[in-house]
Amino acid sequence: MLVNMNDVLYDAKKGKYAVGLFNAVNLELARGIIAAAEQTGSPVIMGTAEVLFPYGPLEEVSYYLLPMAKKAKVPVVIHLDHGLKKETCLKALELGFTSIMYDCSTDSYDDNVKKVKEMADIAHSFGATIEGELGHVGDNEGSAEGSSHLADPSKFFTDPKMAKDYVQKTGVDALAIAVGNAHGAYKLPPKLDFERIRTIAKTVDVPLVLHGGSGLTDNDFKQAIKEGISKVNIFTDINVAAVKAEFSRFTDMNKGIIDLIPAAVEAIKQESMKKMELFGSVGKGGVMPKADTDAIVRRVVEEVLRTMGK
């Protein structure tokens, strides 16, 4: 079912788990992500980012994302991540995206507030939700966002007091924060500022978002979610998993793309399921995971057979 972020993130915030955002720039990615969500009974956020348009143009991506979300057995948010231009955000809303992120984090504070407030009013008029970013989440070398190494990333960390003011003035539904995280694959282990996450979570009322999730350790995720993260963005891990699976099938040149597609979809599904289990969102989509459903069916059949035996 197609929903917006408020439909899934406030439950996550209350329940101390997180919902994953998985970018899907082609049909294989989308199929794997939806299959994972349905098998685990997990709510999911699926979408794309402006920097990924060269690989999957926004309008073309909408042709499969929205119908798949509407048909899904679990809540699915279709989200534009890191919309960099007003026009891009408006286009996503017009296409039917139920959530957008307007990233003005590199602007001055006042401009960030002004631009995001305007876009928040527009998004809400569409019945959509909006995510803003305060502080600046940097980019690891080779990330989809590009490379913008910061000599001292802590200078760009989110300030808790500013976060409260920002949320109140903009009306955003979720807030992406900078706490030592970065986009893309980490060359060195990141050092997340868990105390900062905890402080911001106590300071603002909206769910918090962790960008740059791929490459963090399981303990990083668990601790970040425990301290107040309700949404985690993932792309690199599922992107790499798909390629590894395709390479394993490409043993000679007598192969076609149809020999590779099933492997990619399955790899994306398995990697997405791992993240959903790690984030604690399994079974939180109002649909019981398939394994649990099968267990109940077996118990019912056993009870019927036992009764018949009497």
Summarize the structure in words.
The protein is an alpha/beta fold. It has one domain (2-309): Alpha-Beta Barrel (TIM Barrel), CATH 3.20.20. Helices cover 49% and strands 18% of the residues. The chain has helices spanning 6-15, 27-40, 58-71, 86-95, 109-125, 160-170, 194-203, 218-227, 236-249, 257-279, 290-309; strands at residues 2-3, 19-23, 44-49, 76-83, 99-102, 129-134, 138-143, 146-148, 174-177, 182-183, 208-210, 229-234. The strands form two sheets. Strands 2-3-4-5-6-9-11-12 form an eight-stranded parallel beta barrel, surrounded by ten helices. The protein has a three-stranded mixed beta sheet with strand order 8-7-10, with no helix packed on it. The longest helix has 23 residues, at 257-279. Residues 139-150 and 183-187 have low confidence and may be disordered.
Task: Provide a short characterization of the protein structure.
By secondary structure, this protein is an alpha/beta fold. It has helices at 6-15, 27-40, 58-71, 86-95, 109-125, 160-170, 194-203, 218-227, 236-249, 257-279, 290-309; strands at residues 2-3, 19-23, 44-49, 76-83, 99-102, 129-134, 138-143, 146-148, 174-177, 182-183, 208-210, 229-234.
Main CATH class: Alpha Beta
Number-wise, the strands total 12
* Spatial strand arrangement across the major sheet: 2-3-4-5-6-9-11-12
Number of domains: 1
- Helix-strand pattern, N to C? EHEHEHEHEHEEEHEEHEHEHHH
Q: How far apart, in Å, are the first and last alpha carbons? A: 44 Å
CATH topology: TIM Barrel
Question: What is the mean pLDDT?
Answer: 88
Class computed from helices, strands and strand pairing? alpha/beta
Kindly report the name of the CATH homologous superfamily.
Aldolase class I
Major sheet attributes: 8 strands, parallel, barrel
Cα radius of gyration in angstroms: 20 Å
- The DSSP helix count reads 11
The outline comes out as globular
The fraction of residues in strands falls at 15-25%
Task: Estimate percent helicity.
Answer: 40-55%
Based on the coordinates given, report the CATH architecture.
Answer: Alpha-Beta Barrel
The quaternary organization reads as single chain
Q: Stretches where pLDDT falls below 50 for ≥5 residues? A: 139-150, 183-187
